[in-house]
TrEMBL record:
Cross-referenced CDD domains: GGDEF (cd01949)
Record EC number: 2.7.7.65
Gene Ontology molecular functions: diguanylate cyclase activity
GO terms (BP aspect): cell adhesion involved in single-species biofilm formation; negative regulation of bacterial-type flagellum-dependent cell motility
SUPFAM superfamilies: GAF domain-like, Nucleotide cyclase
Name this polypeptide is given: diguanylate cyclase
Cellular component per GO, a single term: plasma membrane
Organism of derivation: Billgrantia tianxiuensis
Cofactor field: Mg(2+)
All copies of domain GGDEF, residue ranges: 281-410
């Protein structure tokens, strides 16, 4: 008979999620015996199971449980999680072999194998409806022990392995196994979720050890789900970042020439002008226009005209520094913002681009030239005034015969 104190202790343990308790019972000869009390379900009946608890020398189960549980809970990757779990199982149970199950694709997983995680093919899966996270089967594939989650105890009338026993018996005998411990990391996430430990000798799991293995299984299941969710979140973040980058590029890029559009280059000019005014550093702009572009469109069509604009933009871009900015100002006009350049340096740069364009024929048009106006930032300048001076200088280049570079008139 169980005393009232023992019944109360067992009820409290079950309420906390523990499958049982250890209690000390007196014998008739004056000695005492340590027993493990637990509840199991079979069919519609709940059975109180009483087992003698063997003293396990050298096994500080609470300490080992804390150590291995912490390692598993802190695993930063699935491969590290599996490695810690397999090592914990081998240390705690003493089984000869602990491996991951590969019941799909012949058990092959090159990534995990490269990490040194042992994997082998297994001929069955676990019946998910049974939800038995831990089971010990004998060499005849019969269930020796089943441990269910607290509050969801399994029916012990059958083994929840979706496999005819002969096939599983062949798998066990082929490995000379007389006992196999199967852990099911039950979860909805994809991937491997079964672990097998096998031994060439019949085995029994002491109740406290069963409880500890069940807890480690639950920790591993939760950690694996969290790692999967983290991986999915990182993947979604990468996709979102890539899409935002593409959207930003579309918002800032002229689709025809693939340089900055008017809106973007105005933002750049405003930012660079503010920095130049604040730091007292030089800043210049190059405004250039493709010569006789209307005639090109009239003679060759707009498709060729579009090709000319694209080639002009790419040629000009190739002569600018990484710190310079090129944008399409409108129509056949382009503007380059060149930080750190005074008027003389900007004029030299404009001439290099001007000559390069004239020396790079574009089929079927042939030679294509551009007229350049160069203006440098002055004290108290605004973006509008700076671009206006460059525009006046560009029209001076047009009047000078095109295909040349001009600066604003003195006093402009």
């Amino acid at each position: 008979m169980l005393g009232a104190d023992t019944v109360t202790a067992l009820a409290r343990a079950l309420a906390r999620g523990s499958p049982g308790i250890t209690a000390l019972f007196g014998r008739g000869n004056g000695t005492s015996q340590r027993l493990y009390l637990s509840l199991h379900a079979t069919g519609r009946h709940v059975i109180l199971e009483v087992e003698p608890q063997q003293e396990e020398a050298g096994h500080d189960l609470p300490g080992l449980g804390y150590t291995w549980g912490t390692r598993i809970a802190r695993a930063s990757s699935t491969s590290e999680l599996y490695a810690q779990l397999l090592q914990a199982l081998q240390v705690l149970t003493g089984f000869e072999s602990c491996t991951l199950l590969g019941h799909d694709n012949d058990g092959r997983d090159p990534h995990l194998e490269q990490q040194g995680i042992p994997i082998e093919s297994f001929p069955c899966t676990v019946d998910r409806s049974a939800r038995v996270p831990l089971m010990l089967i004998d060499g005849q594939a019969k269930p020796a022990e089943l441990v269910g989650s607290p509050g969801s105890l399994p029916d012990l009338s059958g083994c929840p392995l979706c496999l005819p026993p002969p096939k599983l018996r062949d798998w066990l005998s082929g490995r000379q196994a007389r006992a196999a411990l199967i852990l099911d990391l039950y979860e909805a996430t994809p991937g491997r979720s079964l672990v097998v430990c096998r031994d060439r000798q019949p085995r029994h799991l002491a109740p406290p050890l069963r409880h500890l293995l069940l807890q480690l299984t639950q920790v591993a299941t939760l950690r694996r789900a969290l790692l999967h969710e983290k991986q999915q979140t990182q993947h979604r973040y990468r996709l979102l970042h890539e899409r935002n980058t593409r959207l930003q590029r579309l918002a800032y890029t002229d689709p025809l020439t693939q340089v900055a559009n008017r809106h973007r280059i105005e933002q750049v000019l405003e930012t660079e002008l503010a920095a130049a005014s604040r730091n007292g550093s030089p800043l210049a702009v190059l405004l250039f226009d493709v010569d006789r572009f209307k005639s090109i469109n009239d003679a060759y069509g707009h498709e060729v005209g579009d090709r000319v604009l694209h080639r002009v933009a790419q040629e000009a871009q190739s002569h600018l520094r990484n710190s310079d900015y090129l944008g399409r100002w409108g129509g056949e006009e382009f503007i380059a913002v060149v930080p750190g350049c005074d008027l003389t340096q900007a004029q030299e740069l404009a001439w290099r681009v001007c000559r390069a364009l004239a020396q790079s024929p574009i089929e079927p048009v042939g030679q294509v030239t551009a007229s350049f106006g160069v203006a440098a930032c002055q004290s108290g300048d605004s973006c509008r005034r700076l671009v206006r001076r460059a525009d006046l200088a560009m029209y001076r280049a047009k009047r000078a015969g095109r295909a040349c570079v001009r600066t604003p008139e003195i006093g402009a």
